[in-house]
Design goal:
The complex is a heterodimer. Chain A is mainly beta. Chain A contains 2 helices and 11 strands; from the N terminus they run E-E-E-H-E-E-E-E-E-E-E-E-H. Chain B has a single domain, classed as glutathione-dependent formaldehyde- activating enzyme (gfa) (Alpha-Beta Complex). Chain B contains 2 helices and 11 strands, in the order E-E-E-H-E-E-E-E-E-E-E-E-H. The chains are: A mainly beta, B mainly beta.
Chain lengths: ~150, ~150
């Protein structure tokens, strides 16, 4: 089974999960590619299933009107993306998949914002692929949550 | 042509750190080592540029961490965007930096030419193969013995 523990590369920030994740997604939007340096792999888990240690080392950056991104202020590891307020997805958090200690048992299943995907690489497998419009239709546009 | 280079601009998500870089290659690599995996949350998609080719603005917003005996990693202290990986010594080829392709304003024409530490990549995902060079950790250590010295 996949791991239920994770954290940044220097160890200042750690977390434990109530359940081992089984799926991850990738977001190809320009904001995610800019912030991560190119590849935004996310583990979407319920916020109340994450227990943090060392959260005082987390830097928070409000990356848009509807979301913030968390990173370790000691080593710069990208840790999570989460929406602000009570809108769609407010009970979830997207953890950077690379922060999980062991990704055995996890599979990439979904690609979102595929209309912004660069041509230089592609993921193998029979993945669910969603454009921006399809994502907003499925989950609600962030503008709706104001 | 893998020798093709062009000048590019870039910066972090919030704009506090900006740079211009001369002669940036069109090709980049993917590193799956654990340090890159945790730092990026995924894998490092990096293009190698001589450090002297880069002119930075907003350097007081650049935070650094010595992530191993031979390299440091840097990010924007305001927004957290990963900025570069840089060899610092210990037998490593000092002088170059790896820029994550996401920091570039435009990387739309760039292509992958190698993928390293492939044996450390999680099975959770894979890239579609192309003619890129794929190397295990051991194969990388043949080129860079410093890896085995930690």
């Amino acid at each position: 089974m996949g791991s239920t523990a994770g954290g940044c590369l220097c160890g200042a920030v750690r977390y434990t999960l109530a359940r081992a994740p089984a799926e991850m997604d990738v977001c190809h939007c320009g904001m995610c590619r800019k912030h991560t340096g190119g590849l935004a792999l996310g583990l979407m888990v319920p916020r109340d299933e994450v227990t943090w240690e060392g959260f005082e080392h987390v830097g928070l950056f409000r990356s848009s009107d509807w979301a913030e991104r968390g990173f370790c202020r000691t080593c710069g590891s990208g840790l999570f993306y989460r929406t602000l307020g009570d809108g769609p997805g407010s009970d979830m958090i997207s953890l950077g998949a690379g922060s999980l200690d062991d990704l055995d048992g996890v599979r990439l299943t979904t690609e979102i914002f595929v209309d912004f995907q660069p041509d230089g690489y592609a993921f193998a497998g029979d993945l669910k692929r969603m454009t921006q419009a399809e994502v907003e239709a499925a989950f609600g546009s962030e503008e709706d949550s104001a | 042509m893998t020798d093709d280079v062009r000048d590019r601009t870039g910066g972090c998500y919030c704009g506090a750190v900006r740079f211009t870089a001369r002669d940036v290659p069109l090709t980049f690599g993917i590193c799956h080592c654990e340090t890159c995996r945790r730092w990026t949350g995924s894998a490092l998609l990096g293009v190698t540029v001589p450090a002297d080719n880069i002119t930075w603005e907003g350097e007081d917003h650049i935070a650094r961490h010595q992530s191993s005996s031979f390299a440091e990693r840097a990010w924007c202290s305001t927004c957290g965007s990963n900025l570069f990986f840089r060899f610092t010594g210990g037998g490593a080829p000092v002088g170059g930096v790896e820029l994550p392709v996401g920091v570039l304003d435009d990387a739309s024409d760039m292509v992958v030419h190698n993928e390293i530490f492939i044996d450390h990549k999680p099975d959770a995902y894979a890239f579609v193969p192309n003619d890129r060079q794929v190397l295990t950790r051991a194969q990388c250590a043949e080129k860079f013995p410093l890896l085995d010295r930690g």
